[in-house]
Structures are given as structure tokens and as C-alpha cells.
From TrEMBL:
SMART domains in the cross-refs: Bac_rhodopsin (SM01021)
Name the record gives this protein: Uncharacterized protein
Organism: Knufia peltigerae
Gene Ontology CC entries for this record: endoplasmic reticulum; plasma membrane
Region forming the signal peptide: none
Length: 303
């Protein structure tokens, strides 16, 4: 049974066809990436059961992006979640010749959901102030939005939004790598190593996305199949590779040390005392009444 996704979900959206689009080759590759993301999601959930309930914070945090990536890649492989946009640069090469090109808006939705969560996980490792986390979340979400707007603009004004995207990426680098370094170092060498490796790796990978965008959606240099291969490799670096290292490095670090321990059903609610089972009251011994002073002997009856 072959891949018939492109036959079932054709290349016409809202009555408009597209000239430059993916082929079955690209769809097959993204279905492979979909399987990788699905396996990653299941592995993260499975590994979480090897930890106590209190120590599963990062497992739940990273399982969410893996699930989003699974759904997004399934949509792209199924030829769903795109719109035709007129190209700025018309090429003579047959693979990129035409008036419009497939733009996958579902991909940018995935970026908007996934990228901020990853940055939150890294910053929580360093216990930086909440304001720094919110600012970095805003910047990473802005990168996805700016990339979306740039892709949907058919004139050369798209490169203005592309420049804004790169500027946001530079700001993310400062807030993700440089700013939290002392916070991470104060928590120990192991935490500092996790922060330095993870933040540097993710920022470097994020810097490769604009390059792919520039030669695909932006410049119409490479065909959509090559675009899918490029983005698929970056997604695998960003999620399976990074997440595997991140969870492995955190395996022997108590989340309570980072202020991230989760409350279990056995823990008391905040502001309440621990619940203890009612202790049985010992039977009163002779001359003693439940811890009170010994009772006075009753007076003898008068004769």
C-alpha cells in the first residue's frame, strides 16, 4: 500500500491551485519525521513512569512539543495546512517554476507552540526570574509570527519581516544563553553544563531556520521537497536530539533543587498540617484518668 495522500488531498485550496508543490517523495520523508516525533512522544511519557510523580515536571513539559510536532508533520505529510502564495522570484528551473508556491501555515503554528515551551524548559533549569522567562517566551513566539507574516507576503516587503525575525533571534540568544549563565552557575556545575549545552545548541539550530526559509519560502531557490528535507532535519535536531540530551542530563537532578517538584496526592495542601491517622487512646490505668491528676478516693460511707 503506497502513499496516496497527495491524490486524496490535492493541490487546490479555496478554488486556487498551486504551481510549485511537494511530491510523494517529500510526503514520504515527512511521514518518517512524523513517526519519529510520535515515537519521541511515547518514549518521553514512558520514561516519566520511571520517575516518581514529584519528579516528572520536565517530562510533561517536553512531551507537549513532541505531540505538537507529531500533529504538524502529519498534517504536512498529508498535504494539509497550506495555502498558495505568489512568489517574488520567478525561476526557470522546472522544480521551482511557476507563479505561486505552497506555504505551510500549519508549520508556523507548530513553531509558535513549540519554541516558547522549549525556551521555558531551559530557563527553568537556571531558575531565572519570571520576567526573564516571559520576555524570552515573547521573543520566541515573535520569531514564529514574523516568519509567518514574511511567508504570506508576496512582495519584497517580506524581507522586512525576515529582518525583524533575525533581530528577535539575536535577542533570544542574549536572554537564553548570556543572561541566565550566572543563575545556572550558582546551582552547581551540573546545572550550568545543562544550561550551556542546551541553550547554545537550540539557539544555533534556531539560526538555521531563517537560512532554510530564505532559500525556500523567501527566495524560491530550492523546491518544496528539499524544503521539507531541510526543515525535517532541523526539527529532528531540535526535538529528538535536544530532548534526549536534556532528559538524560536531568535524570539524576532532583527537581526540588530547582524549585520544580510537583505535589503528589500524599502531600498536604499548602497552609495545612500533615494528616496523621488517629492514634488510639490508651486505656486508663488504676488511679489515672486520661492523663488528668489521680482521682481522690471516695469518702467512706457513714455508719
Amino acid at each position: 500500500m503506497g502513499n496516496h495522500a497527495l491524490d486524496i488531498n490535492g493541490f487546490v485550496v479555496n478554488g486556487k491551485s498551486v504551481d510549485i508543490h511537494i511530491t510523494t517523495r517529500g510526503s514520504d520523508w515527512i511521514f518518517t519525521v512524523t513517526s519519529i516525533m510520535g515515537l519521541l512522544f511515547l518514549c518521553i511519557l514512558g520514561a516519566s513512569f520511571l520517575k516518581s510523580v514529584k519528579n516528572r515536571f520536565f517530562f510533561y513539559t517536553l512531551a507537549a512539543p513532541a505531540f505538537v510536532a507529531f500533529v504538524v508533520n502529519f498534517s504536512i505529510a498529508s498535504n494539509l495546512g497550506w495555502t498558495p502564495i505568489d512568489v517574488e522570484w520567478h525561476r526557470s528551473n522546472g522544480d521551482v517554476a511557476g507563479n505561486n508556491r505552497q506555504i505551510w501555515y500549519v508549520r508556523y503554528i507548530g513553531w509558535f507552540l513549540v519554541w516558547p515551551i522549549i525556551s521555558v524548559a531551559i530557563l527553568l533549569t537556571s531558575m531565572v526570574p519570571t520576567l526573564y522567562i516571559l520576555w524570552t517566551v515573547f521573543l520566541t513566539g515573535s520569531m514564529a509570527i514574523l516568519a509567518t507574516v514574511a511567508a504570506l507576503v508576496k512582495t519584497d516587503y517580506k524581507w522586512a519581516f525576515y529582518t525583524f525575525w533575525l533581530f528577535a533571534w539575536l535577542l533570544v540568544g542574549y536572554n537564553l544563553i548570556w543572561l541566565p549563565r550566572k543563575y545556572a552557575s550558582s546551582l552547581g556545575l551540573d546545572v550550568a553544563r545543562i544550561h550551556n549545552v542546551s541553550s547554545g545548541f537550540i539557539w544555533g539550530v534556531w539560526g538555521l531556520y531563517p537560512i532554510c526559509w530564505g532559500v525556500s519560502e523567501g527566495g524560491n531557490v530550492i523546491p518544496p521537497d528539499s524544503e521539507l528535507i531541510y526543515y525535517g532535519i532541523l526539527d529532528c535536531l531540535l526535538l529528538p536530539v535536544l530532548f534526549s540530551y536534556f532528559l538524560w542530563a536531568h535524570w539524576n537532578i532532583d527537581p526540588a533543587r530547582l524549585g520544580l517538584a510537583m505535589r503528589s496526592y500524599e502531600d498536604p495542601l499548602p497552609g495545612t498540617l500533615p494528616h496523621h491517622e488517629k492514634q488510639p487512646v490508651p486505656a486508663p490505668s488504676e488511679g489515672v484518668t486520661n492523663g488528668s491528676a489521680p482521682a481522690e478516693p471516695a469518702p467512706a460511707a457513714a455508719v
